[in-house]
Amino acid sequence: MRIVHVLDHSAPLHSGYTFRTLALMREQVALGWEPVLMTGPKQDSGDCLEADADGWHFHRTPSPRGRLAQAPIAGELAVMRAIERRLERLVETARPALIHAHSPVLNALPAWRVARRHGLPLVYEIRAFWEDAAVEHGSCREGDARYRATRAAETFAMRRADAVTTICDGLRGAIAERGVADDRITVIPNAVDVERFTTHLPEDAELASSLGLSDDYVLGFAGSFYRYEGLDIAVRAMAQPPLRDGRFKLLLVGGGPDEAALRSLVSAQGLEDRVIFTGRVPHDQIERYYGLMDLLVFPRLRHRLTELVTPLKPLEAMAQARLVAASDVGGHRELIRDRETGFLFEPESPAALAECVAQLAAAPEAQLDDVRAAGRRFVEQERTWRASAARYAPLYESLLGENRRDTARS
User: Which residue ranges does the record assign to the Glycosyltransferase subfamily 4-like N-terminal domain (predicted)?
Assistant: First the structure.
């Protein structure tokens, strides 16, 4: 079975979006399917039509040109026209059994038009509500004209797709509220390659010494520094009474839009010697930094996006049998059972995070080992990419069966 996947962006760019894509594509190949991968103009590939990256072949969409291509609304329309033209040519040559478009709606609407012309089933995969992501990134305000227009377009696309997939139960419920029948929604959850993660990470003494972390209790975060991640809460927690002891350190691995604000906050709080920024590190080196962390913290803020969407990073930490503490928002509650596979604390409260950390630092190691082992079991049993990708099979088979019946009747 050949499936054309229409993507926002892909390798060689690094993001949670691209990691999920390639993990699921590997499993689709293992199931005997043939995924054909296409990216839209947001990949910024210039005039390139095809490219290889990370062992995969991608069909690229050239970027629209001209002044209108940069203008609001006209620019989005130009992007969709470019995607539709490129997808039309690809479908004519690849002759897929179905089209699978992935967020955002700029991919879904062109895919819907092409699918209808060719009589193909269309699956639309919602990885996040992009109007909510735009609010978090500062591109619009909740409820403004752009927000409402994006939401309306997304709802239009969801209702017209033959099936909708999404990454978690929070998003599933919100999609159903928009008028999509429950039996047309399938959850394909985020997951990890368990085999890639070791549960016994040795501490890299040389790295620890270079970062000034040799004899400390280290809180850690590795990922992109976005406002909604709540890393300012982690910084402020370091100044709370339970953590004022100099042995508590915070290690921030990565970078992003909120980095400058975080560095300013660290300076204002006088925490330069206790909050360490590493900058971005190569993906193949990340486990060296994980090995220095006694506790991974995920202090996401209580926003619409974080209530609905599950992140990948806590799963990766649990796959390594690392101790995890996360804010009690909906996306985390789908992944972490409090005091069983990890620990939840009140969102947006530096005091609550500090108290949680202090309690864990003083807890018996045997008790914490039980939590670490339970987290690893949860991932092994429920959150592997193989198990997630297997959920596509009955969905695809159902759509193709309906399509064959419709063709026979026509």
Answer: 16-190
Helix, strand, coil % over all residues of the chain, rounded to 5: 50, 20, 35
What is the C-alpha separation between 239 and 224, in angstroms, rounded?
23
Burial of 82 (0-12, 13-18, 19+ CB in 10 A): buried
How far is the CA of 231 from the CAs of 80, 117, 335, in angstroms?
Answer: 36, 47, 19
Q: Which DSSP helix (H) or strand (E) runs through 123?
A: strand 122-126
DSSP state string for 360-390: HHHS-HHHHHHHHHHHHHHHHHH-BHHHHHH
Instruction: Supply angle C-alpha 322, 241, 231, rounded to 5.
Output: 50
**Residue ranges covered by each domain of the chain:** 2-191+385-409, 194-382
- Tell me how far apart the alpha carbons of residues 338 and 114 are, in angstroms, rounded to a whole number: 46
Quick one: tokens of 333?
A: 């509650």
Half-sphere exposure for 215 (CA within 13 Å, toward CB): 2
Place of tokens 């978090």: 136
Distance, CA of 5 to CA of 362 (rounded, Å) = 49
pLDDT band at 131 (very low <50, low <70, confident <90, very high): confident
pLDDT in tens, 270-295: 999 999 999 999 878 888 999 999 99
pTM of the model: 0.87
Kindly give, in sequence order, each residue whose CB lies less than 8 Å from that of residue 181, ignoring residues fewer than 6 positions away: none
- Tell me which H or E stretch contains 313: helix 313-319
Q: Of 39-53, 71-85, 127-141, 369-383, where does mean pLDDT reach its minimum?
A: 127-141
Domain covering 194-382 assigned CATH 3.40.50.2300 in the classification = no
Residue 341 in tokens = 């596979």
Write out the two tokens for 338.
Answer: 């409090």
Cis ω before 12 (30° cut-off from 0): yes
Domain at 2-191+385-409, CATH class: alpha beta
Distances (CA, A) of 407 to 3, 123, 168: 19, 18, 33
Task: Extract long-range pairs of 331-337: CB within 8 Å, 24+ residues apart.
Answer: 331/168, 331/170, 331/300, 331/306, 331/307, 332/298, 332/300, 332/306, 334/168, 334/169, 334/170, 334/310, 335/310, 335/311, 335/383, 336/375, 337/374, 337/378
Q: How far is CA 28 from CA 216, 308, 377, 390, in A?
A: 44, 26, 24, 8
Q: Do domains 2-191+385-409 and 194-382 have the same CATH topology?
A: yes
Q: Which residue has the tokens 């909906």?
A: 330
